[in-house]
Amino acid sequence: MGITRRKFITRTSISLASGAALSSVRGAEPGSPANPAERPLIVSTWRFGKEANDAALSALLANGTILDAVEQGIWVPESDRNNSSVGLGGAPNAAGVVQLDACIMSGPGHRAGSVAAIEGIRHPISAARRVMEKTPHVMLVGDGARMFALEEGLESVENDTRERYEAWRKKRAAAKTKSSERNPSNHDTIALLVLGADGTIAGGCSTSGWAGKLPGRVGDSPIIGSGLYVDNDVGAAGATGLGENVMRYCGSFLVVELMRQGLAPEEACLETIRRIARKEPKSARLGINFVALDKQGRYGAAGSGKGFKFAVATKTDSRVLTAPGIGPLDIGPEGGNRK
Ligand code: SD4
């Protein structure tokens, strides 16, 4: 299933590191095999993914690897103190502390690294990459992750969260219902996927997670197969939204497996959400979204609700698009246990 050009909400040219303005030549269409000239292809979550994609593309054009592209792309929202859901500018947990989750995955070698509930490190994605590249492990959490990052020389930042914490407490006190805290708009993760010019694939994911989460809570984002999954023979997928509704289903793994069975990326994202919605009493009000790309250079995304924005970049174009949502009644023929 393809997204038509009508659905494009933003279409702009970007400037590359070289300073050259990109032409408005169309990039790869979702659901249709891309011309190999469309590689590299970068896909990421939300509007802010566009700047991350542009940085990732610049890394590739400067002869960086696909992992460099993932890491340097994700540095952008991690460095942005105005981003309230990625990096140290993110929302604190219920104890007033920002605990960050991130992971990275390399298609070649099927390698992965991850950190969870890490505090005071500017770039959790770099910590995750070092876990992958420098340890025999896949995941480090909490103090252990922080100590490892410090030993690796990663930048540690004093993070005064008092104001943000007080603002969150006031907002929570003002909230009439608990469900308002579950509004996905209060947390927006970056998942960024890269298909290199040579057809190899990598991805990363980084977040501060659910605002006001319980201390120690880990969401889907650093969990391989949930917030992110890469299979170099097939493609990659990443998730954003309410992690609890992704991690019980190995959401990104499922998207990739559906692509392996022949679904185009957008349809694989939609079918994953339908599959989850069939089991959930809340039906499609899941607050989850997926982005995906496949080995052929096709890409797509979908949300449980309508309006999820995602960003796509090729050498010739960089855009923000709107993904289809399954909508409350569109969960497929089995219907499940909707109330
Ligand atoms: C989490 N999935 O911690 C993350 C949050 C997120 O858009 O993706 N927000 O549950």
Helices and strands, with pairings:
Blueprint: E1 8-12, E2 41-45, H1 49-61, H2 66-79, E3 100-106, E4 111-118, H3 124-134, E5 139-141, H4 142-151, H5 162-174, E6 190-195, E7 201-207, E8 228-231, E9 235-241, H6 244-247, H7 251-260, H8 265-279, E10 288-294, E11 299-303, E12 309-314, E13 317-322
Parallel strand pairs: 4-5
Antiparallel strand pairs: 1-13, 2-6, 2-12, 3-4, 3-7, 6-7, 8-9, 9-10, 10-11, 12-13
Helix pairs in contact: 1-2, 2-3, 3-4, 7-8
The structure holds N-hydroxy-L-asparagine.
Walk me through what this model shows:
With 339 residues, the chain is of the alpha+beta class. The protein has a single domain, classed as 4-Layer Sandwich (Glutamine Phosphoribosylpyrophosphate, subunit 1, domain 1), CATH 3.60.20.30. It contains eight helices and 13 strands. The strands form two sheets. It has a nine-stranded mixed β-sheet. A four-stranded antiparallel β-sheet has the order 8-9-10-11, with helices on one face. Helix 2 packs antiparallel against helix 3, helix 3 crosses helix 4 and helix 7 crosses helix 8. The N terminus and C terminus are likely disordered. The structure holds N-hydroxy-L-asparagine. The site of N-hydroxy-L-asparagine has 15 residues, from strand 9. N-hydroxy-L-asparagine binds next to strand 9.
